C-alpha cells in the first residue's frame, strides 16, 4: 500500500515539490485538464500528461472521472449512447497506450451532492455536509452540468450500467486498463426523482457480479461514502470483506464522515464513524496492495488551498500503513 497525491486536475512544479516533500511518488488526476476531441481524450495528450508527471518525479497511477459530456447519454440511455460508448472505448485505448493503469468512473447522473459546504467541525474547521431533508434547496457544489430533466428509475440505471460494462470491459481488458467504480455520494436511493444505485456494499457486490469476473473491473473504494451508508463502520467492514478477498479494490479514498444517511458531515480522519487503524489493518489482511489517497479534507484556518489539511491526512495515512505492516 502507498499514499498518492490525488484529486488534482493539473500539476505544476510547486504542487509536485509538495508531493515529493511528503514522500509521495504517485499521483491521481480527477477529470484532468486535457483537450477533448469529439468526446474523447487522445493518446498524445494523455502520454504528454504522464510525461510531465515523470519529469517532476511522479508516476501517473490513476485518472478518475471522464467529463460528464463524454457519457451522459450512456448513463441516461439517451440517443447518443452508442456514439459515446465508441468514444469512451477510444479514450480507454488512449489511456492504456499511454501506460496509465486505472480509470476511475462514477455512474451518478445527479453527481456528488452537498447541502452545506462550511459546516463547523473540530476546532472550527469547515467541512461539507449532507441532509436529505434540505435537497430541495439545491446542490451547494457547483456541478458541471444540469440535473437530468427526466426521472430515471433504478432498474433503468442498472440496465445502463450493465450495458456500459458489456461494451467497455473487453476494450479495457485489451488495453490493460482497469475501470474502477466509485460508489454514489451521497448514498441515498434518489435525488430529484433520479435513482442512485451504488448505495450499499451489496450493490457494489452486484456490480462485481455484473462484471463477470473481468480483471478490468474494480472499485474505487471511497471509505467516506461507504461510511455514510446505513451501518457506518459496519458498512465499511462489510464492503472490504465482500470486495477485498476477491481483489476487486483497485484503489481507496481514505476519508470518513460522522453520521449516516439521511444526514452526515465529513470529518478529520479519526473523528468519524470508523477506526482508521482497524480499517487499514483489514485492508492489509484482505490483500489490498494498491494506492490510496486522502480525498476530501476539512478546510483549516488560513488554509485556502487545503495543503495543510492534506499534509495532516497524508502523514496520518503514512503512519497507519507503517503500523499495519
TrEMBL record:
Does Manganese show up as a keyword for this record? yes
> What exactly does this protein do?
Catalyzes the dehydration of D-mannonate.
Q: Which UniProt keywords apply?
A: Iron, Lyase, Manganese
Q: Could you tell me which pathway this protein works in?
A: Carbohydrate metabolism; pentose and glucuronate interconversion
This enzyme's EC code(s) = 4.2.1.8
The Swiss-Prot or TrEMBL record describes its family as follows: Belongs to the mannonate dehydratase family.
What cofactor is this protein dependent on? Fe(2+); Mn(2+)
Q: What catalytic activity does the UniProt entry give for this protein?
A: D-mannonate = 2-dehydro-3-deoxy-D-gluconate + H2O
Which GO MF term does the entry hold, naming one? mannonate dehydratase activity
The EC category is lyase
Q: What is this protein called?
A: mannonate dehydratase
- What single Pfam family name could you report for this chain, choosing any that match? UxuA
Amino acid at each position: 500500500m502507498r499514499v498518492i497525491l490525488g484529486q488534482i486536475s493539473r500539476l505544476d512544479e510547486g504542487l509536485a515539490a509538495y508531493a515529493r516533500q511528503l514522500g509521495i511518488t504517485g499521483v491521481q488526476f480527477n477529470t484532468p485538464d486535457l483537450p477533448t476531441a469529439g468526446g474523447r481524450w487522445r493518446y498524445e495528450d494523455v502520454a504528454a500528461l504522464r510525461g510531465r508527471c515523470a519529469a517532476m518525479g511522479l508516476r501517473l497511477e490513476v485518472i478518475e472521472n471522464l467529463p460528464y459530456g463524454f457519457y451522459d447519454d450512456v448513463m441516461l440511455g439517451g440517443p447518443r449512447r452508442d456514439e459515446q460508448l465508441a468514444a469512451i472505448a477510444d479514450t480507454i485505448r488512449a489511456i492504456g497506450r499511454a501506460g496509465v493503469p486505472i480509470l476511475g468512473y462514477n455512474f451518478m447522473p445527479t453527481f456528488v451532492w452537498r447541502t452545506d459546504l462550511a459546516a463547523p467541525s473540530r476546532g472550527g474547521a469547515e467541512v461539507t455536509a449532507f441532509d436529505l431533508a434540505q435537497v430541495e434547496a439545491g446542490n451547494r457544489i457547483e456541478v458541471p452540468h444540469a440535473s437530468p430533466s427526466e426521472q430515471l428509475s433504478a432498474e433503468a440505471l442498472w440496465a445502463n450500467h450493465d450495458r456500459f460494462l458489456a461494451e467497455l470491459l473487453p476494450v479495457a481488458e485489451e488495453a490493460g486498463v482497469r475501470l474502477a467504480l466509485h460508489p454514489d455520494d451521497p448514498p441515498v436511493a434518489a435525488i430529484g426523482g433520479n435513482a442512485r444505485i451504488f448505495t450499499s456494499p451489496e450493490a457494489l457486490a452486484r456490480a462485481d457480479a455484473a462484471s463477470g469476473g473481468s480483471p478490468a473491473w474494480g472499485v474505487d473504494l471511497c471509505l467516506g461514502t461507504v461510511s455514510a451508508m446505513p451501518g457506518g463502520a459496519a458498512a465499511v467492514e462489510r464492503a472490504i470483506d465482500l470486495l477485498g478477498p476477491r481483489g476487486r479494490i483497485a484503489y481507496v479514498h481514505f476519508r470518513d464522515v460522522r453520521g449516516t444517511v439521511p444526514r452526515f458531515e465529513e470529518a478529520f480522519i479519526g473523528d468519524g464513524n470508523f477506526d482508521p487503524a482497524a480499517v487499514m489493518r483489514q485492508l492489509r489482511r484482505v490483500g489490498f496492495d494498491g494506492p490510496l489517497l486522502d480525498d476530501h479534507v476539512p478546510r483549516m484556518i488560513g488554509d485556502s488551498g487545503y495543503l495543510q489539511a492534506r499534509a495532516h491526512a497524508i502523514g496520518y495515512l503514512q503512519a497507519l500503513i507503517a503500523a499495519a505492516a
